[in-house]
Amino acid sequence: MPNRGNLIVISGPSGTGKGTICKKLLTMNKNIFYSVSATTRRPRPHEINGREYWFLSKVDFEKMIEENELLEWANVYGNYYGTPSEKIDELRLQGKDVLLEIDTQGALNVMKQVADGIYIFLLPPSLDELEKRIRRRGTETEAVIKRRLDAAAQEIALGTHYNYVIVNRNLSRAVNQLNAIVVAERCRTGRNLEIINKIKNREI
């Protein structure tokens, strides 16, 4: 029976580069599986249903809430976001690591349910740089940009609840730091007691 896989949760304020960093990590480390979240927001250009998100109607999302099919869910800026739990449990039981990219509100909810998760907080170099990144998207109105920046200032204070913090000044460095955390967590003593005992007892 393989060791239970890790649940790796990365979150941070909107615009910190969570999605880009996660995509790079999945390319670098083929032993990690990405958990696709569900949302009722509209797809952005080039987003594909089932890849970035499962894009659902409000009715379908609320049905998942009623049937307890979500690890966590939240209403963010007027849209539902949530994490389907079935696939995560299945992969972890197979010994596979699962990467979950969610907002801070969702991450705090997961912390209450998954005590052995690995929680990583992604920070921008500064709030000025964060604003530049959000504006470069070209997908939000001025009102939404202001709301996101106001929220970011409050969300940054939540970084103290996480196991690790990464400042995204340089994309390659941030990805390498994230991968280093994943590899180090696999090497924890508690995850390797079986192999320690087998070698000690000359069973292998």
Describe this structure in words.
This protein has 204 residues and is α/β, with parallel strands linked by helices. The chain has a domain at 7-35 and 96-200: Rossmann fold (3-Layer(aba) Sandwich). Helices cover 43% and strands 21% of the residues. The protein has helices at 18-28, 58-66, 86-93, 104-113, 127-137, 142-155, 171-186, 193-200; strands spanning 7-11, 32-35, 37-39, 53-55, 70-76, 79-84, 97-101, 118-123, 164-167.
Q: Helical amount among residues, as a percent range?
A: 40-55%
CATH superfamily of the domain at 7-35 and 96-200: P-loop containing nucleotide triphosphate hydrolases
Order of helices and strands: EHEEEHEEHEHEHHEHH
- Count of helices? 8
Q: How many β strands by DSSP?
A: 9
CATH topology title of the domain at 7-35 and 96-200: Rossmann fold
Q: Biggest sheet: strands, sense, closure?
A: 5 strands, parallel
**Class per helix and strand makeup:** alpha/beta
- Oligomeric grouping of the chains: single chain
CATH class of the domain at 7-35 and 96-200: Alpha Beta
End-to-end Cα distance, whole Å, is: 16 Å
Low-confidence stretches: none
Instruction: Using the CA coordinates, give the radius of gyration.
Output: 18 Å
Q: How large is the share of residues in beta strands?
A: 15-25%
Report strand order across the widest sheet.
2-7-1-8-9
CATH architecture of the domain at 7-35 and 96-200: 3-Layer(aba) Sandwich
Shape: globular
